[in-house]
Amino acid sequence: MPFIVAIEKKSFPQPWSYSLFLSEMSNRMASYFVALWQEKVIGYIGMWLVFEEAHITTFAIHPAYRGKGFGKRLFSYALQYALLHGCKEVLLEVRVSNVVAQNLYLGFGFRPVGRRRKYYSDGEDAILMKKDLTEGSV
């Protein structure tokens, strides 16, 4: 888990703590996956599966490995996992300022469905995005 926390710190202005990740590991609704390259953890994604809905809770790729397709493969794997476990839709929040992530999600068929005002502790809004898994490709 130290590798995940290190990537988290390089990726977000307000990173999750080690203890928060640790508590997620005991959450029965949570599923986490890592991306490996040459036996090194280079990314991770976490989601909650709640009945027929998946909620992406966190997702990051180490800055040195971004733009190489690792994030797309890991994200695609998580969506397939959600579909195989009976989920019909996937939700996530993304910072208004994180246009790169928004474009990735749009490319996977997510669409903005709302805005969470002052969602992040620094006061930045989040865009709520949703994908309907029953509409075809994952």
Explain the overall architecture:
The protein has helices at 2-11, 18-25, 70-84, 99-107, and strands at 30-37, 40-50, 53-61, 89-95, 111-116, 126-132. It is α+β, with helices and mostly antiparallel strands and 138 residues long. It has a single domain, classed as Gcn5-related N-acetyltransferase (GNAT) (Aminopeptidase, 3-Layer(aba) Sandwich). It has a six-stranded mixed beta sheet with strand order 1-2-3-4-6-5. Strand 1 and strand 2 form a beta hairpin.
Strand order of the largest sheet: 1-2-3-4-6-5
The CATH architecture would be 3-Layer(aba) Sandwich
* CA-CA gap between termini: 28 Å
Tell me the radius of gyration. Answer: 14 Å
Helix content: 25-40%
CATH class: Alpha Beta
- Which ranges are low-confidence, i.e. pLDDT below 50, for 5 or more consecutive residues? none
Biggest β-sheet: count, sense, barrel? 6 strands, mixed
**Shape estimate:** globular
Strand portion, in percent? 25-35%
What's the tally of helices? 4
Provide the number of structural domains: 1
Structure classification: alpha+beta
Tell me the CATH topology: Aminopeptidase
CATH superfamily: Gcn5-related N-acetyltransferase (GNAT)
H/E element sequence: HHEEEHEHEE
Task: Report the count of strand segments.
Answer: 6
User: Averaged pLDDT, please?
Assistant: 94
Quick recap:
The chain is of the alpha+beta class.
Q: What secondary-structure arrangement, pairings included, does this model have?
A:
Elements: H1 2-11, H2 18-25, E1 30-37, E2 40-50, E3 53-61, H3 70-84, E4 89-95, H4 99-107, E5 111-116, E6 126-132
Parallel strand pairs: 3-4
Antiparallel strand pairs: 1-2, 2-3, 4-6, 5-6
